[in-house]
Design goal:
- This protein has helices spanning 3-29, 35-49, 52-75, 83-113, 119-129, 131-156, 162-195, 200-208, 213-248, 271-278, 311-319, 376-381, 385-406, 428-453, 490-505, 513-518; strands at 252-257, 261-266, 297-301, 326-327, 338-342, 362-374, 409-414, 417-422, 462-477, 484-488, 509-512, 528-532, 539-545.
- The chain has 554 residues and is an alpha+beta fold.
- The strands form two sheets. Strands 6, 7, 8, 9, 10, 11, 12 and 13 form an eight-stranded mixed β-sheet that branches. It has a five-stranded mixed β-sheet with strand order 2-1-5-3-4, with helices on one face.
- The chain binds FE2/S2 (inorganic) cluster.
Length: 554
């Protein structure tokens, strides 16, 4: 089974375990209501997870997820990895040790000794008999949850909808364990109080049949055998890695990077692993899982000698429209010397991987807004440089804030002008409505700024705004630190020209009729003009808006 398929199976198992954790935490959170509510929740929880199917799913998932994690640990040629991946591995590897006692003391004790592990007894143990174990258990749950959350984040972050959902998911990720812990504490306190009632503890023990001394010893042996087996398996994987490394050192290949950097690695090491081993920064947003395509390299020399790309690699390369000499560094394992050129900057972000691959550019319909201060050069002539910078920064704050409040993306703050995009993620109709709302807010914010600056300005600041919508090439462009999402194309030129026309018409806003109709605005009361526009057959109808307050909301 290839590494990518292994990861998929492991992901399926992880999904079962995540479901279990969510239900388990929800059950704990019922402690905030009462101990009885916890027990009722547990009744349903056990109906799922102690049924034959639930047992098979849960323990099958544990074996598959853990087993495949060890297999992937063996498969990777270097243990150098990004910090998030190292954290996820470490948390996952310590989990068996953290959870073994709890699983044996509840599930196995129920199965082997007929003990009833109802909340009252477990909480009595954690809160009254052995509070240090309760703390241990809380740590175990936090570790399991963090491990799961890292996995979910790195699994979902390529989805186009994820950036919009991440805030909500993050809130759930914090809220659920917090409520679970709070429920655990509330339930524990309730049990502590009940334990003070004469006869309550004896009745609980009689009703739940806790394991006797012999059974406890037997359960201890089960736990130790499990932990020993786990440590042996982990040790065997690490030993096998060592043997393989020694074996492979007999045959090595040279990988040539730009700037004549040469890395010599054993056969079987992927190009991405070679980069990591040599400390060469290399983009790998998905951590080498063959999902993001950001590690891709152009093979400058030795393409014919490389093993053929797997179907999965081919699919990923096809999705980004890669040229025939491009391969995924995390998937290709050279068997002869090869020269490669990494194609993406090491700092590339998840949003730049395919799916929302805006770095490569995509054509889509957007609304574009240009805004520019009128006559600011004359205002600036009578000011000290410090004052000019101060006023401009306050102006950019007012305009940028208005754009963002309306849902747009401000970019290109040049001179005293601003360009903003609307509808990149939400669609052009909503984008047009947002752009018009932003224009209104800009005018409002500017009026407030004029009042605030008052006498510092000889004449109030005035603005001209142009809005047009249509197809544009949208992408992350720029260099170094100055890479940002922007758009190019005729739609952008037209929007800029409409902003320029506000000087000619002496108005605050010129918008195209396309924008008005897509924003469902009635602009019939405003003067209409027709313009000739470069690269466009026919005329472009625009509306000249002198007072934005008269512009009805769409
Ligand atoms: S690192 Fe994501 S595909 Fe290679």
């Amino acid at each position: 089974m290839g590494a990518i398929r292994v990861r998929r199976v492991r992901l399926g198992a992880a999904f079962v375990l995540l479901t279990y954790l969510i239900l388990h935490f929800s059950n704990h959170a019922l402690g905030l209501v009462s101990l009885d509510a916890m027990e009722t929740g547990r009744h349903w929880f056990l109906a799922i997870w102690r049924s034959q199917l639930g047992t098979l799913a849960l323990y099958g998932a544990i074996v598959v997820h853990g087993g495949l994690a060890l297999w992937l640990l063996y498969q990777r040629r270097t243990l150098r990895m990004p910090a998030w991946e190292a954290a996820q591995y470490t948390l996952g590897l310590v989990l068996p040790a953290l959870l073994a006692s709890h699983v044996v003391g509840t599930r196995i004790a129920w199965w082997q000794a007929g003990s009833d592990d109802r909340y009252a007894r477990v909480l009595f143990h954690f809160w009254v008999q052995a509070p240090e174990r309760g703390a241990w258990q809380a740590v175990a749950l936090a570790v399991a949850w963090t491990h799961a959350c890292i996995g979910v984040h790195y699994w979902l972050r390529f989805r186009p909808w994820y950036p919009r959902a991440v805030g909500c998911l993050f809130t759930i990720a914090l809220l659920l364990p917090t409520l679970a812990l709070a429920g655990f504490v509330a339930g524990g306190r309730e049990v502590s109080v009940l334990a003070g009632t004469p006869g309550w503890t004896d009745a609980l023990m009689r009703a739940t049949h806790p394991p006797g001394a012999a059974e406890t010893a037997a359960l201890g042996r089960v736990r130790n055998a499990f932990l020993d087996a786990y440590l042996v398996a982990l040790g065997a994987v690490l030993a096998a890695r060592g043997v393989r490394t020694l074996w492979q050192r007999r045959r090595s290949v040279r990988i040539l990077y730009p700037a004549d950097r040469v890395v010599t690695v054993p056969v079987g090491v992927s190009v991405l692993e070679a980069s990591r081993l040599a400390g060469i920064p290399h983009a790998s947003v998905c951590g080498g899982r063959g999902r993001c395509s950001t590690c891709r390299v152009r093979v400058v020399h030795g393409l014919a000698d490389l093993p053929l790309a797997s179907l999965t690699e081919q699919r990923v390369l096809a999705r980004v429209g890669a040229a025939p000499d491009v391969r995924l560094a995390c998937q290709v394992r050279p068997v002869r010397d090869v020269a490669v050129l990494p194609l993406l900057a090491p700092s590339i972000a998840a949003a730049d991987a395919f799916g929302s691959d805006v770095r490569q550019g995509r054509e889509q319909e957007v609304a574009v807004l240009f805004a520019d201060l009128r006559g600011f050069t004359r205002v600036a002539e009578h000011k000290l440089p410090y004052d000019v910078v101060f006023i401009l920064n306050r102006y950019f704050e007012a305009v940028g804030g208005a754009i963002q409040e309306a849902g747009g993306i401000p970019n290109q703050f040049t001179g005293d002008g601003v360009m903003a995009l609307f509808g990149v993620e939400t669609g052009v109709e909503l984008g047009c409505r947002q752009a018009v709302a932003a224009a209104r807010a800009i005018v409002r914010h500017l009026a407030a700024l004029n009042r605030e600056l008052g006498e510092d300005l000889q004449v109030p600041l005035r603005i001209g705004i142009g809005i047009h919508a249509g197809p544009a090439i949208v992408g992350r462009m720029g260099y170094g630190e100055g890479v940002y999402l922007t758009a190019v194309g005729d739609t952008v030129h037209v929007a800029s020209r409409l902003e320029q026309l506000t000087k000619e018409y002496g108005c605050a806003l010129v918008l195209s009729e396309q924008v008005a109709s897509r924003a469902a605005l009635d602009v019939s009361a405003f003067p209409r003009h027709e313009l000739t526009v470069r690269n466009r057959g026919g005329l472009l109808a625009v509306r000249v808006i002198d007072d934005l307050g008269r512009l009805e909301s769409g």
